[in-house]
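ASSEMBLY PREDICTION REQUEST
Request ID: AP-0331
Submitted by: J.K., bench scientist
Number of chains: two
Total residues: 735
Priority: normal
Notes: Please return the full assembly, not individual chains.
Input sequences:
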Amino acid sequence: MTRMPRTKNTKNNEQVAAQVNFLDEDATATKVEDTPPLFSTGRGLTEDIVRAISRAKDEPAWMLAQRLRAFHIYERMAQPGFGPDLSGLDLDRMRYYEKSTDRPVRDWADVPAAIKDAFEQMGVPQAERKYLAGASAQYESEVVYGHLKDEIDRLGIVFTSMDQALREHEDLVHQYFGTLVPPNDNKYAALNAAVWSGGTFLYVPAGVYLDTPLQAFFRINAENMGQFERTLIIVEPGAHVNYVEGCTAPTYSSDSLHAAVVEVFVKHDAYARYTTIQNWSNNVYSLETKRASAAAGATMEWVDGNLGSKVTMKYPSVYLNGEGARGTMLSIAVAGHGVVLDSGARMIHNAPNTSSSIISKSIAKDGGATDYRGTIRFGPHARGAFAHVECDTILMDEQSRSNTIPINEIHTSDVTMEHEAKVSKVSEAQLYYLMSRGLTEQKATEMIIMGFVEPFAKELPMEYAVELNRLIGMSMAGSVG
Amino acid sequence: MTTLAVRDLHVAVHSDDEHKEILRGVNLTIRSGEVHAIMGPNGTGKSTLSETIMGNPNYEVRSGDITLDGTSILDWSVDQRARAGLFLAMQYPPAIAGITNAEFIRAAVNSRRGDDDQVPVVQFLQDLDANLAKLKMPEDMADRYLNAGFSGGEKKKNEILQLLMIKPALAILDEIDSGLDIDALRIVAAGVNSMRSANFASLIITHYQRLLNYIVPDVVHVMKDGRIIESGGPELAKSLEHTGYEQLSEADNG
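STATUS: Completed
Returned structure:
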């Protein structure tokens, strides 16, 4: 972690392989240490609790008003009318706001021992532990991001937590918050708007080009690694930015809910990439709303990896609102026993000559389910638009399943659309070939799977590629023979 | 020292509805230091013999035995056989996207070393570069995905590259000459010859005598209708070139 990795690592496999061993030394089964929260609103949700959250954060009146409006919408709205069964989700038993420490942690010595222990058990590298522990202001961890902070400041980029942004950049937050994902979009977007806490705020001024990925490594039981993160990214005209987040959740004793909302505004001729890897523990419902708007000539890229959870519903979207705007989605989903990953993307073509690409790769094993659910909409003004969708699935055994559910809405004639879907098994011929060189069946299978996800992995910063390979390696172990 | 022995081997193909026997009583013994060649027309069971020795699950041994240093390997999985020293350069190696050639070969090399004795990356890359140069393969072959988009000749060279890197005790080369031009054939043959030593044995499967001008075998076998019908020195291959396989019949086996 002494240097900032670049985004593209097309030939990093050798290095990744070397680092995987290093990470594995620490990778023992994760056992959760309970860190007693210093402030909690208890279980369930009422208007008083929403007020208490806002009061605890000392928020401006308009934010409280938005929270209350969202809360009333949340109360009225029904569950989503499609997708996985959410009946196991007991919303009355959820805790909606907890604060594990009073103030943002700056000093490693001040980090509660239980959190340090949890990092130890998760095998998080030393430098990253400090960063994680100090994450309330991500860039303030001098060990890792000191030099990056100087560059960010020099360029006029604002990269901070949402809570801090609301205090320090209230006008910007007020102008954009909830305009792309309004509370009435869906029940969990409304819930998030009512009880949000934590998340990232990123503002990139016009023309600023930052190649180094900005990273936030979230974990669910620290203050602003909450269940209801709210992320707002504004990329002004001609700017270029690359944001990366990852989540590794320790196991919880009761079902928990992660309902994040992400809004990304990509102005004309700007570029934004948003990379996520999530590995929720197998009792987490991850119900996220991620949406971006792309103005004329702008590019928005989602890179999204999902390896865990009990149920995930996530369909990042790009509203292609300006002529020539481009949107892409590259995703990988790995579903093991008891896991339902219902994910995909939505590309909404609202302007001429817009283009989009969705590449969805998934692996289902031990009875897991990976469903692709995607929407391509060509609006009446989308003449000359182009969309490409590619779904590629490997089923590791007979118990696992996968469905492809594409929804295409076409309101104009002059458009082009491609759709390919493929479901396959690990090839016998490939297995035989690798095994004939001495690799065990498990190692050979793992390699073939790594090859399958490689188009995704190569788009990740180095340490995320390492983490992804390690997680997939671990989830493949024991799935063979 | 390694001795591979094939005893009265009868083999059928699993996917074949009729379960017709392809091998009908093959006997063969190969010792370290020896290079054997098997020649014969198409469809006589040469590739079936190679695949069966390697342990391809699509072939079913009906009777007979295959032993390595006296121990039967029929119950061994493919990877066990590989780690015990067997190697098969395949006629049609499959392509695997997303895995680089270098990554694959390193995993293969490491699969026969202990967890605390994995080959250091730098040493591996030096060794790989040296062998790429020996086979006149461009260095970027190491970074390309395994066999993906390789020409026929590149695939054959890549099989030999693996042979040189893995250094098995016994290598079966299944029609390694097919699809190679004369220059490539020379290079591949030189690569195989560089492996020859008192600790290395090889079984070369070919239709044509041409390859055997470059890799001169110690023993030549002629196979027809699922049996070895004649064995002899390198001169047998040369005489076959004149007479052709048609002249041979099972009666010659006498």
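REVIEWER COMMENTS: The first helix of chain A runs from residue 13 to 24.
SIGN-OFF: pending second reviewer
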